[in-house]
Amino acid sequence: MEKITTLKEFLQENKESGIEAIAQYIEEHIRASWQGVFQENHDRLLEVYNKAGDPAYGTYLNFLLLPMNKQLKDAGLRPEPRLPGDLDISREWGNIEERQRWMWSTIHTEKGESLGTIVTIVYHDHTQFRIPRQPQIIALNETHKEDIVAALSHRSSDFKHAREFAIEVEEYLKNQQSNS
Fold this sequence. Notes:
Blueprint lengths: L6 H7 L5 H22 L1 H11 L2 H20 L2 E4 L10 E5 L2 E12 L4 E11 L11 E5 L4 H11 L1 H5 L3 H15 L1
Antiparallel strand pairs: 1-3, 2-3, 3-4, 4-5
Helix pairs in contact: 2-4, 3-4
């Protein structure tokens, strides 16, 4: 059985502790475990989905990325906020059977230095509980919200035109009030 390298060991062995190396490690974890985590937790996740809908995908991401949050801490790094990121400022778009949500966390050293940002892209279905493909990771050097949004907007016109989740919810609630 192959010994699993910790993030701390990986960064030491590669003499690289930049955001690209961290993203590479997280991508490998996701590649190796995204389907297994989904299958192992399917019944619990489906129960959450049947009761609350989309929050089940957040629960899935927490299961998937909990080991990465622990690995970051063990390596002396701190994601702000925890992986996968802040739902309120995330953005979502796509067809109903394969939506994508982009969330992000800035990675800090123990000394408070910002290394960069890890963007997590999760694909999900709004017609049934299904993750149609592997979550993806993007590494950015940007660390401030405005710069992150600009970099992601440059990378994706869909991201640029999507609204933050908190704004979508606020507009939805206003529409519900005016229709009642």
